[in-house]
Design a protein that fits this description.
This protein is mainly alpha-helical. The protein is 46% helix and 8% strand. The strands form three sheets. The protein has a three-stranded antiparallel sheet, covered by helices on one side. Helix 2 packs across helix 5 and helix 7 packs across helix 12.
């Protein structure tokens, strides 16, 4: 970099009384910024200025003043300003931030965060007994917050959340009921009003918030379909809040299997008001059903123990329905529509090979082999030769 002695093309360097050198420059924001540290030599300070100039030319420069914001302040603003978050998601993010992130990293400035610090934080959570699932959720939240800081707001040069596998969860495989077990469970509900609730949750693969928000007008006159028009979420201090479904694809119409339509009719006749907006599944007083009331009313623990699946959760009914639907050879797109998912990822999970499906594949392959063997035999006979069938190992 040719220049006259004492003059620089970019930035300034001055010698401090301590003998060290301070570098500064005029940033794209029109303000003068000092290097975060001083340098032992003029050449070291100059090298730093060359690095900064290159970042500005490549449009990779980040404002060091903005990088001084505390992580807790930035994350709280990120949650408040994030578009399209459902109330339950806002609550979850705020809880994760307050419980697992802020106590450990909240006071750290964004510009000071680095990958070793993130790795150490994650390891500390696990050492303190936080489950892998909750640790992964907290890590994913932090990664999303810092992704915005790096890619959108340009506060930091890169996302420091680069810990391999830290955002992955490996939960235990959830149980899948047989069709017989679903009907057995429905018949064991302590109150008859919950029989159709169990059947519809399983065979229409509805989420808790979706099925509790179904109204009479959301079920076809012939009970051939159920429409998901909204969903309930339960928030601390606010109770049940009615809103849109979990995702854009969640607003859907699901065909009801003919085998359970009689149960739906019987439920509508006995337990549901005649008005179109009457809730289909309620407690004894006619109010929308709440989770805290469901287990005691149905004697759920006794019922699931009686069918041989003592650790069954209500959400496992949806898991069962999705698994059974995948076994019908439905396409990924059709499964996505029925399940209410925007992404094919969940649908593809349910299309993983099961022992039943694998046996069917084996039978199909066996048929192909048999046809090829007999075709060869027939061709040999046409040539006037004895066609010996050679066993295929």
């Amino acid at each position: 970099m040719a220049r006259k002695k004492g003059r620089r093309r970019f930035g300034w360097v001055r010698k401090l009384p301590s003998g060290r050198f301070q570098a500064s420059y005029l940033g794209p924001d029109g303000k003068r910024h000092n290097a975060p540290e001083t340098f032992p030599t003029d050449r070291d300070a100059d090298r730093w200025l060359v690095h900064v100039e290159g970042a500005i030319l490549r449009r990779e420069w980040t404002n060091p003043d903005q990088a001084k914001i505390r992580l807790c302040d930035y994350a709280e603003s990120w949650i408040a300003e994030r578009p399209g978050l459902r109330p339950r998601t806002v609550h979850l993010y705020g809880w994760l931030l307050a419980k697992y992130v802020t106590p450990h990293l909240g006071e750290v400035q964004l510009g000071q965060l680095d990958t070793p610090m993130i790795r150490s934080w994650r390891a500390k959570l696990l050492r303190e007994g936080v489950s892998e699932t909750m640790t992964a959720k907290a890590y994913r939240l932090l990664r999303a917050v810092l992704m915005t800081a790096a890619n959108e707001d340009r506060i930091i040069p890169r996302n420091p959340c680069q810990v391999r596998g830290a955002g992955s969860e490996n939960p235990d495989e959830r149980p899948v009921l047989t069709v017989a077990q679903v009907f057995d469970l429905a018949s064991r509900m302590a109150e008859k009003r919950y029989r159709a609730f169990v059947l519809l949750a399983a065979f229409a693969t509805l989420r808790w918030g979706e099925i509790t928000a179904v109204r009479r007008q959301d079920i076809a006159p012939d009970a051939s379909w159920v429409r998901v028009a909204g969903a309930f979420v339960e928030l601390p201090g606010r109770g049940l809040v009615y809103g849109p479904p979990k995702s854009r694809a969640g607003r859907r119409t699901v065909a009801i299997p003919e085998a359970i339509r009689a149960d739906i009719f019987a439920h509508l006749d006995e337990f549901v008001g005649s008005k179109p907006d009457a809730w289909v599944f309620t407690g004894k007083r006619g109010n929308p059903l709440r989770r805290c009331n469901f287990n005691p009313a149905t004697k759920w623990k006794a019922a699931v123990a009686a069918i041989g699946v003592p650790h069954l959760h209500f959400h496992d009914l949806r898991h069962t329905g999705n698994t059974l639907a995948a076994r019908t050879k439905a396409s990924t797109r059709d499964l996505m529509a029925r399940m209410g998912h925007d992404s094919p990822r969940a649908a593809m999970i349910y299309q993983h090979a099961t022992s039943e499906a694998d046996q069917e594949i084996a039978r199909g392959l066996s048929g192909l082999v048999d046809r090829e063997r007999y075709k060869k035999s027939a061709d040999d006979d046409d040539d006037g030769e004895a066609g010996a069938l050679v066993p295929v190992g």
